[in-house]
């Protein structure tokens, strides 16, 4: 399944890029993320609890950042699996200055398998979009909250 | 498959139900047409299921002061066969009659369907067109939310933790209005690929009032406000429906792409409006 879209984060590109690489910020912004810990250079281990309507499931996975090109963009690879299924996403994030901050455009593909995919095929697309939207909304809130304290990650 | 073990309670009052749903992995069970299959697939594994089926009078359908009060556990079949709904809100009866199959309509409830908030569920289109309200109650308080503010995202509603849907409030109509629920069902699931609810009131042969609700096309049901306005301003139906889905996100799956769904919403809206027009007096 192909996914593409764009969201605006209310900070300049350098700051947006830094936020997108900060495990503390990512952990807070990813819906249902219980823990995100660094396991290698630009590689993180992630525990996630997805709750959507009555559906809930624990996912265990990895987040990897490749082809870093600050502040213009990078490639994000996310893998996760749990009892109810597995997912693998691979996408290119492109940052550019825009009115009101930085536009983060994403273009990539997501594969979902297991029970969740066989039962929920009709809902995968809208659900994936909703999760991405929530991620960026949360990230924008985090960005706004940390707006004055540039460089606090160091 | 067999669900994971869970505790089961069937309270006999709402007050008891409020206490039982507080805290932990609790789920409210109404008709079970969504929750039970998910539990059997182990996509949902609540620790405790609170069944509203034994709360008396929660399925009552009554009319007071020009408003229909539909109890949350009224089944789809109750709605499609209720003389009150058929007479005073035929649009909702028509929508209820097109949900799933007879087994689902006999078990599934309006409250359960709304709380689950499937983006392709049938009721939301009609409830938006009817400007209905959802009454939510918790141990401490009660509030009503307009249908337009209730559906937030796929499977996401304005229900707060601790709240239960107790009633749906729908304005009763006088019988001059034309209505139609027009749906293309998914051949396997019966869910709406696109469903359009239309209400039209005519005055001197022209459209004086139009309400259009659309489900299945986007992440949640929505009102086609631009199309309503155009119809009320006397624009041709063709022109009004062309605005539907403009700038709106549309769902896409193996069965129907986003563009197809948008197109379908317009075609079905046109048909719904035409039937509603022919029924309006």
What string, H for helix and E for strand, traces the elements of chain B in order?
A: EHEHEEEHHHHHHEEHEEEEEEEHHH
Helix content of chain B: 25-40%
- Low-confidence regions of chain B: none
What is the 3D shape of chain B?
globular
Which fold does the CATH topology of chain A refer to?
Alpha-D-Glucose-1,6-Bisphosphate, Chain A, domain 4
Compute the number of helices of chain B.
12
Sheet with the most strands, sense and barrel status of chain B: 5 strands, antiparallel
Number of folding domains of chain B?
A: 3
Shape of chain A: globular
Task: Give structural attributes.
heterodimer; A: 154 residues; alpha+beta; Alpha-D-Glucose-1,6-Bisphosphate, Chain A, domain 4; 7-stranded antiparallel sheet; 3 helices; 7 strands; 51% strand; globular; disordered C terminus; B: 281 residues; Uridine Diphospho-n-acetylenolpyruvylglucosamine Reductase, domain 2; Uridine Diphospho-n-acetylenolpyruvylglucosamine Reductase, domain 3; Enolase-like, domain 1; 3 domains; 4-stranded antiparallel sheet; 33% helix
Could you walk me through the main structural features you see in this protein, from its secondary elements to its overall organization?
- The complex is a heterodimer of chains A (154) and B (281).
- By secondary structure, chain A is of the alpha+beta class.
- Chain A has one domain: 2-Layer Sandwich (Alpha-D-Glucose-1,6-Bisphosphate, Chain A, domain 4).
- Chain A is built from 3 helices and 7 strands, in the order βααββββββα.
- Chain A has a 7-stranded antiparallel beta sheet.
- The model of chain A is unreliable at 148-154 (pLDDT under 50).
- Chain B has 281 residues and is an alpha+beta fold.
- Chain B folds into 3 domains: 7-54, Uridine Diphospho-n-acetylenolpyruvylglucosamine Reductase, domain 2 (2-Layer Sandwich); 61-171, Uridine Diphospho-n-acetylenolpyruvylglucosamine Reductase, domain 3, CATH 3.30.465.10; 181-279, 2-Layer Sandwich (Enolase-like, domain 1).
- Chain B contains 12 helices and 14 strands.
- A 5-stranded antiparallel beta sheet of chain B has the order 4-5-10-6-7. Chain B has a 4-stranded antiparallel beta sheet with strand order 11-12-13-14.
- Chain B is globular, with a radius of gyration of 19 Å.
């Amino acid at each position: 399944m192909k996914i593409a879209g764009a969201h605006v984060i209310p900070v300049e590109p350098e700051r947006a890029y830094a936020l997108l690489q900060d495990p503390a910020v990512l952990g807070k912004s990813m819906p249902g993320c219980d823990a995100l810990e660094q396991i290698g250079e630009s590689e993180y281990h992630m525990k996630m609890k997805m709750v959507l309507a009555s559906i809930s499931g624990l996912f265990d996975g990895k987040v990897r950042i490749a082809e870093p090109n600050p502040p213009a963009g990078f490639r994000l690879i996310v893998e996760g699996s749990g009892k109810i299924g597995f997912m693998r996403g691979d996408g290119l994030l492109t940052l550019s200055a825009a009115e009101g901050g930085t536009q983060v455009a994403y273009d990539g593909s997501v594969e979902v398998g297991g029970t969740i995919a066989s039962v929920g095929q009709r809902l995968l697309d809208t659900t994936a979009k909703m999760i991405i939207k929530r991620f960026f909304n949360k990230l924008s809130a985090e960005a706004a909250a940390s707006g004055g304290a540039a460089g606090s990650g160091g | 498959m067999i669900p994971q073990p869970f505790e089961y309670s069937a309270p006999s009052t709402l007050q008891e139900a409020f206490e039982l749903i507080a805290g932990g992995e609790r789920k409210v069970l109404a008709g079970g047409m969504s929750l039970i299959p998910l539990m059997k697939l182990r996509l949902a594994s609540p620790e405790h299921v609170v069944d509203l089926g034994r709360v008396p009078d929660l399925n009552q359908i009554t009319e007071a002061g020009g408003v229909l009060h539909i109890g949350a556990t009224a089944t789809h079949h109750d709605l499609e066969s209720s003389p009150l709904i058929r007479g005073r809100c035929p649009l909702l009866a028509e929508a209820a009659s097109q949900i799933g199959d007879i087994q689902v309509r006999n078990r599934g409830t309006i409250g359960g369907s709304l709380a689950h908030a499937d983006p392709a569920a049938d009721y939301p289109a009609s409830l938006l067109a009817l400007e209905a309200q959802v009454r939510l109650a918790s141990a401490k308080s009660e509030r009503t939310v307009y249908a337009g503010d209730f559906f937030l995202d796929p499977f996401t509603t304005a229900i707060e933790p601790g709240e239960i849907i107790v009633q749906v409030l729908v304005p009763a109509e006088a019988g001059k209005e034309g209505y139609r629920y027009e749906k293309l069902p998914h051949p396997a699931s019966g869910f709406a690929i696109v469903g359009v609810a239309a209400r039209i009131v005519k005055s001197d042969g022209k459209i004086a009032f139009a309400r259009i609700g659309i489900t299945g096309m986007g992440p949640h049901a929505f009102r086609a406000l631009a199309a309503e306005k155009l119809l009320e301003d006397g624009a041709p139906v063709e022109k009004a429906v062309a605005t539907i889905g403009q700038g709106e996100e549309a769902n896409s799956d193996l069965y129907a792409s986003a563009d197809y769904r948008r197109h379908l919403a317009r075609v079905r809206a046109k048909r719904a409006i035409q039937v509603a027009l022919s029924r309006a007096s």
